[in-house]
């Protein structure tokens, strides 16, 4: 063979030798271990004809979507490779945890987050040199193996959103390198082991939604490297240890729903770097401390549902980075600072005792019920300016959805987008107030309503395909109600978790329900009550109205999963509300009677025409130049009623019709309601806006006299011909808020009209 031919053959042999060598650089024992691991996990997409370390053949995705990573990683030298990391997030794995991991001697990371792996955590893993164990979002049972104390290299143990139970092994206090310990949303019991005092390397500790007992231990003050501490709905009681002030590196502190006695506001003066401070439902009494103003990095402040008194300290103005502030459900008093009303942040001051007047929402500040405590009338102060068209005996709401009808009942649409601190008032006799921010929200869209886009397990369209959500507290408020006994129907369907096998096993939602201030449902789980996901359930309750108002509140107490199927899925969810007086009978059943709507509209149109003609005559004579002040006295208005009726009429209905007629004759178009609004008012679906007539008192008096003359002439001489209006279908109000709500009498608009 010629020399150049020999050289060519040598190159070919060397090339094939290199390829063969490269294909077998992962030891056979590790390849076989991966086969067994795949079988145990239920992983079917690994191609064992490809190199497990080559990132081909299903061993790694080229384009990793965050939260759904799929990758096997190796470390290689010139002669051999070893598997160091297996990350299989949200891969729909339905097997169990593999003890065979021990056959991968250099494995440092196992991440199986958000799968559907069952069974227990293998104690065999305790002999490994793992650095990161992430098993969150799997329906695992049993306890944390005591053998884990031998993993001296372990820095992160994440077992949140599982079904683990039992006491925490005291031996875990001997983990010298642990930095992250996530235990939330399990069924752990007992006290936190005293040995945890040794976990001085901790940077992130989360134990929310468990059944622990005892107090928050004082030893947490030893965790001086701690950056995040999350204890919400854990079962632990207060008070918050005073030594917490030693944790100078904290940037995220969340403690809520503590049982126990009242306690004062903890000293947090050393926590200058705090970004998130949540101390909700912690039985904190006393005044807001000036130290809050020193936390200039704060973007989230939640001190809701405590027993705080006094005013808002001036130092709070220094919180220039604040994004949301919740002071809901305390007993704060005094004036609301002007600077607070001008901040761009979402601020909720609802359910306090401030001396505030005006609307329920000012800029981005929710003031609903902010001055209602001690209000014996029961009417929320910011609603007092609204006139009731009549005394209602019901309200029905399709929460989060459009208007819908079920079993002959029409449920009003409720599609307002809402926000972290918002108030919404309908055109009828109900409103809602929403408080709370979805933390670490991974939902799309990031909304306070939700629409199911998949097929539900039952044919429950209409009321149940959409719902309203809240991350903390949602209150529906009915007003202008007849006093007496009511039936309250609350409609639910879990539509954020699908009805597939996997989601039944991991996602859990729990919240409380209050009616008229009394808790009627504790730890309510829609899925359990409906016997499955995507199924409807209706909870019925008796209730009593004594002050014309009904309050229904849904409250999250820090329990159950917050990150399944994605982060931000938790808190109350309500599909529909139906509230009906026990004696109410629909008109078709011989209930409330009245003048047909078409006839009423015809009368109003005729009256308006007469008034316009009379006013034109007065204007021609120059009578409108006077500025006599004539009050809107109900007695004078009732003179318009046909005396032949005697007392056989409902005064509130008559006043509604008269006020509508007066509104319709305003000279300024902006002050006249739309026809759809008129119909909605006369049907009793909307409130009568305050009558803001022309500023000339004489004009108002002329209108009243013109109407009286018209009705007198009609009574004496009759009306030739007939006047009627045909309404072929149901009427719905479509007017904007500008149509409905009156302009303030002291507004610049009215001042500058002349």
From TrEMBL:
Its main location: membrane. It catalyses: L-seryl-[protein] + ATP = O-phospho-L-seryl-[protein] + ADP + H(+); L-threonyl-[protein] + ATP = O-phospho-L-threonyl-[protein] + ADP + H(+). The chain crosses the membrane at residues 597-620. Residues 395-577 form the Malectin domain. Keywords: ATP-binding, Glycoprotein, Kinase, Membrane, Nucleotide-binding, Phosphoprotein, Receptor, Serine/threonine-protein kinase, Signal, Transferase, Transmembrane, Transmembrane helix. It is an enzyme of class 2 (transferase). Its EC number is 2.7.11.1. This is non-specific serine/threonine protein kinase. It is found in: Membrane. It comes from Tripterygium wilfordii (Thunder God vine). It is a single-pass type I membrane protein. GO terms for cellular component: membrane. Pfam families: LRR_1, Malectin. GO terms for molecular function: ATP binding; protein serine/threonine kinase activity. Residues 1-22 form the signal peptide.
């Amino acid at each position: 063979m010629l020399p150049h031919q020999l050289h060519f053959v040598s190159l070919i042999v060397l090339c094939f030798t290199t390829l063969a060598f490269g294909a077998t650089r992962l030891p056979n024992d590790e390849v076989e271990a991966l086969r067994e691991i795949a079988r145990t996990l239920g992983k079917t997409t690994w191609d064992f004809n490809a190199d497990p370390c080559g990132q081909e053949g299903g061993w790694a995705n080229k384009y990793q979507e965050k939260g759904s990573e799929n990758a096997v990683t190796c470390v290689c030298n010139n002669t051999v490779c070893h598997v160091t990391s297996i990350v299989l997030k949200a891969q729909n794995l339905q097997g169990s945890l593999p003890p065979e991991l021990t056959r991968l001697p250099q494995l440092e990371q196992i991440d199986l987050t958000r799968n559907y792996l069952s069974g227990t955590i293998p104690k065999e893993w305790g002999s490994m040199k793992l650095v990161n164990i992430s098993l969150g979002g799997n329906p695992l049972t049993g306890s944390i193996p005591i053998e884990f104390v031998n993993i001296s290299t372990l820095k992160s143990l994440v077992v949140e959103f599982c079904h683990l139970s039992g006491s925490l092994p005291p031996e875990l206090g001997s983990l010298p390198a642990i930095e992250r310990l996530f235990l939330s949303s399990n069924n752990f019991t007992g006290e936190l082991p005293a040995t945890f005092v040794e976990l001085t390397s901790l940077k992130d500790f989360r134990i929310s939604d468990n059944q622990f007992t005892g107090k928050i231990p004082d030893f947490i003050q030893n965790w001086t490297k701690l950056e995040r501490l999350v204890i919400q709905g854990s079962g632990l009681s207060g008070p918050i240890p005073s030594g917490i002030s030693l944790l100078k590196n904290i940037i995220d502190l969340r403690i809520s729903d503590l049982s126990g006695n009242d306690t004062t506001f903890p000293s947090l003066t050393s926590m200058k770097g705090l970004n998130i401070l949540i101390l909700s439902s912690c039985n904190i009494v006393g005044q807001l401390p000036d130290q809050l103003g020193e936390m200039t990095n704060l973007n989230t402040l939640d001190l809701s549902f405590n027993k705080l008194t006094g005013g808002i300290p001036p130092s709070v103005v220094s919180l220039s980075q604040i994004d949301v502030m919740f002071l809901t459900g305390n007993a704060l008093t005094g004036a609301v600072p002007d600077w607070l009303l001008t901040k761009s942040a979402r601020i909720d001051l609802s359910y306090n005792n401030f001396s505030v007047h005006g609307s329920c929402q000012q800029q981005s500040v929710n003031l609903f019920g902010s001055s209602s405590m001690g209000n014996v009338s029961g009417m929320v102060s910011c609603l007092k300016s609204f006139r009731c068209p009549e005394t209602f005996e019901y309200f029905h709401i399709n929460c989060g959805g459009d208007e819908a009808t079920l079993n002959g009942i029409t449920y009003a649409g409720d599609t307002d987008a809402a926000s972290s601190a918002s108030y919404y008032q309908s055109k009828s006799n109900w409103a809602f107030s929403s408080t709370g921010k979805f933390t670490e929200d991974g939902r799309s869209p990031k909304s306070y309503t939700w629409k199911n886009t998949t097929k539900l397990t039952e044919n429950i369209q209409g009321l149940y395909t959409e719902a309203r959500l809240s991350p903390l507290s949602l209150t529906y408020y009915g007003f202008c109600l007849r006093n007496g006994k009511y039936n309250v129907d609350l409609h639910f369907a879990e539509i954020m978790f699908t009805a597939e096998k996997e989601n039944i096993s991991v996602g859990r939602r729990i919240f409380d329900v209050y009616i008229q201030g009394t808790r009627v449902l504790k730890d309510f789980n829609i899925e359990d009550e409906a016997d499955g996901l995507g199924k409807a359930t209706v909870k019925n309750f008796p209730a009593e109205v004594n002050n014309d108002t009904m309050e229904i509140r849904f409250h999250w107490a820090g329990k159950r999963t917050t990150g399944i199927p994605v982060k931000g899925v938790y808190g109350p969810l309500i599909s529909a509300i139906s509230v009906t007086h026990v004696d109410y009978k629909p008109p078709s059943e011989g209930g409330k009677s009245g003048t047909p709507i078409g006839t009423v509209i015809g009368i109003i149109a005729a009256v308006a025409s007469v008034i316009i003609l009379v006013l034109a005559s007065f204007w021609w004579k120059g009578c409108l130049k006077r500025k006599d002040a004539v009050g809107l006295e109900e007695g004078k208005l009732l003179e318009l009623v046909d005396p032949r009726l005697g007392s056989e009429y409902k005064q509130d209905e008559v006043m509604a019709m008269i006020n509508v007629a007066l509104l319709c004759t305003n000279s300024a178009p902006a002050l006249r309601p739309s026809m759809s609004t008129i119909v909605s008012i006369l049907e009793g679906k909307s409130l009568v806006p305050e009558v803001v007539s022309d500023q000339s008192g004489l004009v108002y008096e002329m209108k009243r006299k013109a109407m009286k003359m018209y009705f007198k002439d009609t009574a004496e001489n009759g009306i030739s011909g007939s006047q009627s209006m045909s309404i072929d279908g149901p009427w719905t109000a479509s007017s904007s808020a500008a149509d409905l709500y009156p302009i303030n009498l002291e507004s610049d608009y009215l001042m500058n009209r002349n």
